[in-house]
């Protein structure tokens, strides 16, 4: 485990933020939560984030747009996407080159943790 790894979680659902914060902290990660993609970008934490978990569909800037904004800044953070909607949104595969993982809510927490570990091993 990468105990000192910083995981950023971006989701407009407060319950999901609290749930993932608790889960990831229980496994020894440092967690930072953001209620929107813009809040994450405004915080300026890109350089200090080892892995990003982002909801796909959020008001304002969606998770895919966040991914694109980070790529435009040359901030290639390993990214896992989560969604409450069934199926991939239109053009997801064309716009997201290398997602570390894609999970529909509710998701298997062990699969999510394993995916985070793989992403951290690969790094940026």
From TrEMBL:
<dbReference type="InterPro" id="IPR011006">
    <property type="entry name" value="CheY-like_superfamily"/>
</dbReference>
<feature type="modified residue" description="4-aspartylphosphate">
    <location>
        <position position="55"/>
    </location>
</feature>
<dbReference type="Pfam" id="PF00072">
    <property type="entry name" value="Response_reg"/>
</dbReference>
<protein>
    <submittedName>
        <fullName>Response regulator</fullName>
    </submittedName>
</protein>
<dbReference type="InterPro" id="IPR050595">
    <property type="entry name" value="Bact_response_regulator"/>
</dbReference>
<feature type="domain" description="Response regulatory">
    <location>
        <begin position="6"/>
        <end position="120"/>
    </location>
</feature>
<dbReference type="InterPro" id="IPR001789">
    <property type="entry name" value="Sig_transdc_resp-reg_receiver"/>
</dbReference>
<keyword id="KW-0597">Phosphoprotein</keyword>
